[in-house]
């Protein structure tokens, strides 16, 4: 499988969503043996980025990766991994210390500087996600930075020196002014936008009134039994699974 990205778009066949074959890659000027491996030691899976000006070969189209996740089936996790590796390779061509061209290691995902020895590994950014519960109600929020954002659980990146639990308490208080308790781990998911590891929890409401951090949150409110729920994230995302696993009794989507 050849995962070819243009920005955050993946090249797929227009009719079947098949990934490009060697002929399609050649149209783009790509040699398969020069592409990054997605799985070390397995040449069947390769990935790379092409310039923003690149045109799709006949019969193919570049489509937004986020929109494709629900359609890729068993290739979803591989596509996310391929995107992160391709982006890492694209952004680590030169040493960040001395600007020498980096050289890939053969036994691990590592770019190493031959001049000063700096090693650069694929970046993974841990982020917490939490669904706050108050009795039979759940708190859903719509983020301000996305015009068409769905209502979802609260989320935020872990800061230097924090534990994941510290991040949950801080983000909930910063974004909606609430205090929480009884954190319970729900699950995790690699999320390639651009290189996150989402670590999801539930938490119980412990006090406070909703006070929005307006540059981050456009809307947040409690949804209880019998309430019609707004649009929520797709089932393929951990946010979608987290919300669906905690739906209030009698609520409808």
TrEMBL record:
<dbReference type="GO" id="GO:0016787">
    <property type="term" value="F:hydrolase activity"/>
</dbReference>
<dbReference type="Pfam" id="PF09296">
    <property type="entry name" value="NUDIX-like"/>
</dbReference>
<feature type="domain" description="Nudix hydrolase">
    <location>
        <begin position="122"/>
        <end position="245"/>
    </location>
</feature>
<comment type="similarity">
    <text>Belongs to the Nudix hydrolase family. NudC subfamily.</text>
</comment>
<dbReference type="Pfam" id="PF09297">
    <property type="entry name" value="Zn_ribbon_NUD"/>
</dbReference>
<keyword id="KW-0378">Hydrolase</keyword>
<dbReference type="Pfam" id="PF00293">
    <property type="entry name" value="NUDIX"/>
</dbReference>
<dbReference type="InterPro" id="IPR015375">
    <property type="entry name" value="NADH_PPase-like_N"/>
</dbReference>
<dbReference type="InterPro" id="IPR020084">
    <property type="entry name" value="NUDIX_hydrolase_CS"/>
</dbReference>
<dbReference type="InterPro" id="IPR000086">
    <property type="entry name" value="NUDIX_hydrolase_dom"/>
</dbReference>
<dbReference type="InterPro" id="IPR050241">
    <property type="entry name" value="NAD-cap_RNA_hydrolase_NudC"/>
</dbReference>
<dbReference type="InterPro" id="IPR049734">
    <property type="entry name" value="NudC-like_C"/>
</dbReference>
<dbReference type="InterPro" id="IPR015797">
    <property type="entry name" value="NUDIX_hydrolase-like_dom_sf"/>
</dbReference>
<keyword id="KW-0460">Magnesium</keyword>
<protein>
    <recommendedName>
        <fullName>NAD(+) diphosphatase</fullName>
        <ecNumber>3.6.1.22</ecNumber>
    </recommendedName>
</protein>
<keyword id="KW-0479">Metal-binding</keyword>
<dbReference type="InterPro" id="IPR015376">
    <property type="entry name" value="Znr_NADH_PPase"/>
</dbReference>
<keyword id="KW-0520">NAD</keyword>
